[in-house]
Amino acid sequence: MARIVVIGSGMGAMAAAARLAVAGHRVVVYERGRTHGGGVGRFARDGFRFDTGPGLLHLPAVYRDLFMKTGKQTLEQSVELSQVDPASRHLFADGTDVRLPNASRAGVLQALDGAFGAGAGERWSDLVNRAREVWDATRRPLLEEPLRADWRVLGRDPYPAAPVRRGRLSGLFGRGGADGPPTLAAVARRELKDPRAVAFLESHALAHGLDPRSAPAAATVLPYIEQTFGTWYVRGGMRALADALHERCRQRKVEFHFDAEVTGIVEKDGRAAGVELADGTLAEADAVVSGIDPVLLPPLLGGQAPWREGDVRPEPGAGGGTPGRLTALLALRGARPEDATHRTVVHAPDREAELAAVFGDGHGLREPCPHPTVTVLRPDDPTVRPDEEHEAVTLTAVVAPHGPVDWTDGMAAEQAAQRLITAAEAAIPGLRGRMLWHEVRTPADTQAETGARGGAVPGPVLAGADGTFLRPANVTRLPGLYLAGGWAHPGGGLAHAGMSGALVAGLIVEGEDWRGSQ
Questions:
Q1: For 419-441, how does the pLDDT look when each residue is reduced to its tens digit (9 = 90+)?
Q2: Among the listed residues 486, 509, 502, the one whose alpha carbon sits nearest the alpha carbon of residue 8
Q3: Which of 516, 483, 24 is nearest to 272 (CA)?
Q4: Other residues' Cβ atoms within 10 Å of the Cβ of residue 192
Q5: Which of 8, 148, 344, 495 could form a disulfide with 427 if both were Cys (CB 3.0 to 4.6 A apart)?
Q6: Cβ atoms of 478 and 267 closer than 8 Å
Q7: pTM (2 decimals)?
Q8: CB under 8 Å to 9, separation ≥6 — which residues?
Q9: What is the DSSP string of 310-341?
């Protein structure tokens, strides 16, 4: 039995901890904050409860596997999981209103034809077919196995040019055409034509904090995953999933210490041998799993970077330059209408202006967007509201991170939140008249609570773009030190965090030549 120290208690770190504990190791978690879950937080007031991180789950199979392999209770026995149907509603500035069914390709095609005109569904179907090839080519190397030594092959875009040619993995990469691999924005314009359909595709990338103007065409896999595997909600919100995973860890005798900041990683005989805490305590270990942003690790390693020669390396400013989330939590009087949609996306009237504000205008300028794309979440869940005569609603927009924008400026944050509320009135008529109170959360709050630079929210890994959208490998230059969580392979998001934990546990239990479950 080895003693494993885990730094941080985010979803990836806890996923690794649970799997390592069930393998017979003694696992101790040190968390700088006061609670578990990382970015999967909760705000509660007056009987209302809100997720402060992700509000929906995709690829639930990741957590089904985790719960099945770490205890007797399955995921569905640990939390109440349900499909969201319709999966989403999309509102556009010209008045177009389209509702998309959950995990129904034929239903999506019919809805798009009805909203955007005949042929829109077929064009979308063709794009999704090509996205399926991206999924088939990249699922294993990007999600199911540790990052390969020849990771540069993943830097070539797997999005297939028409006509589609079939072949081995190496043959699928790099078919971008005479001008090089296309961006997601270029694919959207070329293949979907209608600007509303373009905005629909690009909104999937934007929701993950990706700029469609620079994201590779491989980002088409994001709507493919959602459309194929469905959109799911956990009763009580995603925080209930974090609570269930924390409880599973405790059942497996994982030891948690909160308000316990790690200030150093101890090396002995060329290996990670434990951690030093802010109070001077030394915790010895046979292996250390870091669940924090790897860019924050050099000070803990005496100034040495954790990655090996030839590994994927994050840019020093990569995390701090990644967009964050502006969220308005609304406590409403009045019952939730029976026909209300769980998730509505109110699209920005000027996509280019929004992208320039969030990602920069080419001259470094980033600022609050006057008319952002806003996601409105209205869960039909009695556990998140005081009674049936009230409703809890969450509004979210992707925004520039803290740093380029001063999100500690309360007045500016409130003005930005009011713009979210104005946009949300398209989805909830009479919204302002129903408001009891609202709470605003900015990237500065995210940074303060999770330590994420600029309040950044990491997105999933993607092939293409010369490896720009890959994360550092789970194995580091220092034997015995491993990386888990959203800033390590295979990237951010609830499902990817769970995969990251599984990969780290496999590497520790099976050895560093392990290539993933077959």
A1: 999 999 999 999 999 999 999 99
A2: 486
A3: 483
A4: 22
A5: 344
A6: yes
A7: 0.94
A8: 29, 31, 33, 35, 36, 37, 38, 246, 256, 258, 291
A9: TS----TTHHHHS-EEEEEEEEEESPPPTT--
